[in-house]
Amino acid sequence: MAEPHESRIYYDLARFYDAVFGRAFVSHEHEVIDSLNLRPGQRVLEVGVGTGVSLDSFPPYVHLVGIDPSADMLARAVKRIEENRWKNIEVRQGDALALDFPDNSFDDVLTFHVISVVPDPQKMMAEMVRVCKPGGRIVIVNHFTSPNPIIYFLNSLINPITRHLGWTTRLRARDVMEGHNITIERFEPVARFSIHDLIIARKNA
Fold first, then answer.
1. Strands of 197-203's sheet, edge to edge?
2. pLDDT digits over 88-109, tens only?
3. Residue 90 and residue 80: Cα distance in Å, rounded?
4. Phi then psi for 203, rounded to 5 degrees?
């Protein structure tokens, strides 16, 4: 069984990703980015930028770096950047579990629908906190399993299938958020009736 980050959905099927997943996620990704009120001169990191479906919602006065392990995904992101002549955006290959940036490099660190895909979500969270500046924000949009034990059990039943496709249904928000030098400011559904949650945490000074 492939690890989530090795799934064919994220590599061999990259050319279908926008049609299958991008349309489902793009609207609330844009809404979240708009709500952040990013300021001129800020440095922002998107972990798991994929094909770049979120890129057009970032204002031109911030410097955005996007990383992703998939060269095929990044090729599509680069095409978006070139077609739109975005001078403030760069993308590169990178590992969410070992971010190739110094400590305290970014004002905000964002990730959309990625943390349940990597094999070690806690390590990914630790890396995002590490590269975020004190006082900066870590922003996560993802589906987390319910703390209700019955719903957790039901999610566990389909987990072998989703693991094969590339993600886990058993990830709990508390398992990701606990133990880090952060303060959670928002934890709520990303939209009404949405199965995805928005978490905004601020790195403590």
1. 89-93, 63-68, 43-47, 106-112, 132-142, 197-203, 182-189
2. 999 999 999 999 999 999 999 9
3. 11
4. -70, 130
Question: Mean pLDDT, to the nearest integer, of 82-86?
Answer: 97
Alpha carbon distance 9, 116 (integer Å): 14
- Domains of the chain plus CATH, in order, are 4-203 (3.40.50.150)
Nearest CA to 66 out of 88, 82, 84, 39 is that of 88
Q: Which residues contact 75 (CB under 8 A, 6 or more apart)?
A: none
Percent of the chain with pLDDT over 70: 73
Distance from C-alpha of 87 to C-alpha of 68, rounded to nearest angstrom: 19
- The answer to whether 172 and 71 are in contact (CB under 8 A) is no
Highest mean pLDDT among 2-11, 161-170, 172-181: 172-181
What average pLDDT does the chain have? 83
Tell me what pLDDT residue 148 has: 57
The DSSP annotation for 48-105 comes to: T-TT-TTGGGS-TTSEEEEEES-HHHHHHHHHHHHHHT-TTEEEEE-BTTB-SS-TT-
